[in-house]
């Protein structure tokens, strides 16, 4: 079955950096877009970024563009999110997600358990 | 990016039907049949309930249905059950924005 397991979260000071990873299994990773979605404590869902499985095209939410970088390794079946210049507002649970259908990014049927990132001095 | 508008809360008694609305614009919901709905219980990851406005993934109860009229999408839960109490988020493709998709503000569904 599809499994997405995030890692790399933790406490980081404002201005610092962190790298999240997502290990994928149970499906052909290279057939799917992959993405990161976050949720601040007590708040709604917010798009962070997603990446194409073929062209490598990357799409970023307004609040993270220029600070975060999404990448993927289709050999190691892994997704990454490198986060720079972190701010208190980046504090959230970060979910790794996979769309329902290959070659589509319009609905996301598989989610990891989430990893908490806390930005605080 | 501005979020789609959902009511903060909707409630109903067991067995009743409720509808959660999701209002956007002609640049998102109004022009594309790419609306999805997610259910999230406290402390859990979101779960896809509806995609492409009306389609239900395998394993989702047929008590959940989706529809769209103009710039507003709706999620209807019929035969409300205690386990349906959760937060619900809509999401739509959004043409012309700096990011192609946008989530709704979220609705807390309470079973009385």
What would you note in describing this structure?
- The complex is a heterodimer of chains A (121) and B (112).
- In chain A, the strands form two sheets. In chain A, strands 2, 4, 5, 6, 9, 10 and 11 form a seven-stranded mixed beta sheet that branches.
- By secondary structure, chain A is mainly beta.
- Chain A contains no helices and eleven strands.
- Chain B is built from no helices and nine strands.
- The mean pLDDT of chain B is 96.
- The chains are: A mainly beta (121), B mainly beta (112).
- The A-B interface holds A 37, 44-47, 59-62, 65, 95, 100, 105-109, 111-114 and B 1, 3, 34, 36, 38, 40, 45-48, 51-52, 57, 89, 91, 93, 98-106.
Summarize this entry quickly.
Chain A has no helices and eleven strands. Chain A has strands spanning 3-7, 10-12, 18-25, 34-39, 45-51, 58-60, 68-73, 78-83, 92-99, 108-111, 115-119. Chain A is globular.
Give the helix/strand layout.
The complex is a heterodimer of chains A (121) and B (112).
Chain A: E1 3-7, E2 10-12, E3 18-25, E4 34-39, E5 45-51, E6 58-60, E7 68-73, E8 78-83, E9 92-99, E10 108-111, E11 115-119
Parallel strand pairs in A: 2-11
Antiparallel strand pairs in A: 1-3, 3-8, 4-5, 4-9, 5-6, 7-8, 9-10, 9-11
Chain B: E1 9-12, E2 18-23, E3 35-40, E4 47-50, E5 64-69, E6 72-77, E7 86-93, E8 101-103, E9 107-111
Parallel strand pairs in B: 1-9
Antiparallel strand pairs in B: 2-6, 3-4, 3-7, 5-6, 7-8, 7-9
Please give the radius of gyration of chain B in angstroms: 13 Å
**Poorly predicted runs of 5 or more residues of chain A:** none
Quaternary state of this entry equals: heterodimer
Strand content of chain A: over 45%
Annotation keywords:
heterodimer; A: 121 residues; mainly beta; seven-stranded mixed sheet; four-stranded antiparallel sheet; globular; B: 112 residues; six-stranded mixed sheet; three-stranded antiparallel sheet; 9 strands; 43% strand
